[in-house]
């Protein structure tokens, strides 16, 4: 085998303190979670950044950005067990799946958000790329994941459970255009005067609590994935961005400039 199996899990919209307040015994098995910051405030550009080989940053002070990027790429040597990896391996494609393909990996993606569907530009250098039919189907992704003794595997998974409506029945919540992704049914009422109803403070608190519960659900499913993965498999568990639950009058993410939208959890570790 030319490298370690790699599992890269992105809990869509999961802000750091939702992870922090959740009970996560299986994530804890992988490593100590920490607060980091996303490079973007919504799904598509954040996933693009991760697929370049970047990871959430610590917002370091007193250093050049180029030094931060260089150190990020060097860390792939330890994660994958492949000597000599550096930024030079990633150019000119700037693609993690391309680098992995070049080193004999089978590259697979399972995504939940329609904005990441297989026809988008993110589906490059993947041998197998699939939009799940169910928005909340991390368990189905886990059933799809297979390992091969002779070929290292890369699985990149976008999890919808932690994204609005946080596994709740959408019919019981106020209407929001693009409930399962920013573009879904967004133009149904184009030109009409109707405006989406905003949440009150109690609803915001309840939704935040529900996101915490979805993190615990994801953690429970993760147990099966860790169990079926070979020893030495490297796991990354993070989020593409955070979420606002009423802070300064904001809800959600996207065209929002707020710290909570950029704060994400970051956990990584290798199965022993």
Distance between the termini: 17 Å
Report the order of strands and helices: EHHEHHHHHEEHEHEEEHE
CATH architecture descriptor text: 3-Layer(aba) Sandwich
Q: How many domains in all? A: 1
Tally of separate helices: 10
With strands numbered from the N-terminus, the spatial order across the biggest sheet is: 2-9-6-1-5-3-4
Q: Structural class, judged by helices and strands?
A: alpha/beta
How is this structure best described in words?
- This protein has ten helices and nine strands.
- With 272 residues, it is α/β, with parallel strands linked by helices.
- It has one domain: Alkaline Phosphatase, subunit A (3-Layer(aba) Sandwich).
- The strands form two sheets. It has a seven-stranded mixed β-sheet. A two-stranded antiparallel ribbon has the order 7-8.
- Mean pLDDT is 90; it is low at 178-186 and 189-193.
Search tags:
globular; seven-stranded mixed sheet; two-stranded antiparallel sheet; Alkaline Phosphatase, subunit A; alpha/beta; 272 residues; 9 strands; 32% helix
């Amino acid at each position: 085998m030319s490298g370690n199996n790699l599992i890269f899990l992105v809990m869509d919209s999961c802000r750091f303190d939702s992870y922090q307040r959740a009970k996560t015994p299986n994530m804890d098995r992988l490593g100590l979670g920490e607060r980091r910051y996303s490079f973007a405030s919504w799904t598509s550009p954040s996933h693009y950044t991760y697929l370049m080989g970047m990871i959430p940053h610590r917002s370091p002070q007193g250093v050049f950005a180029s030094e931060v990027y260089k150190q990020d790429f060097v860390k792939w040597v330890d994660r994958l067990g492949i000597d000599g990896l550096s930024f030079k391996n990633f150019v000119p494609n700037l693609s993690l799946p391309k680098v992995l393909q070049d080193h004999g990996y089978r590259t697979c993606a399972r995504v939940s958000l329609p904005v990441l569907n297989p026809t988008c530009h993110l589906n490059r250098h993947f041998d197998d790329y699939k939009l799940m039919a169910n928005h909340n189907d991390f368990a189905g992704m886990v059933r799809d994941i297979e390992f091969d003794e002779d070929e290292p595997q890369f699985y990149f998974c976008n999890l919808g459970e932690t994204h609005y409506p946080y596994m709740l029945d959408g019919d019981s919540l106020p209407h929001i255009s693009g409930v399962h992704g920013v573009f879904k049914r967004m133009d149904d009422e184009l030109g009409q005067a109707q405006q989406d109803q905003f949440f009150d403070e109690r609803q915001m608190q309840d939704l935040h609590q529900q996101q915490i519960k979805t993190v615990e659900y994801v953690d429970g499913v993760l147990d099966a994935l860790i169990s079926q993965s070979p020893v030495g498999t490297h796991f990354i568990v993070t989020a593409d961005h955070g979420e606002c639950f009423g802070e300064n009058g904001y809800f959600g993410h996207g065209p929002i400039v707020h710290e909570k939208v950029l704060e994400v959890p970051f956990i990584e570790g290798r199965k022993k």
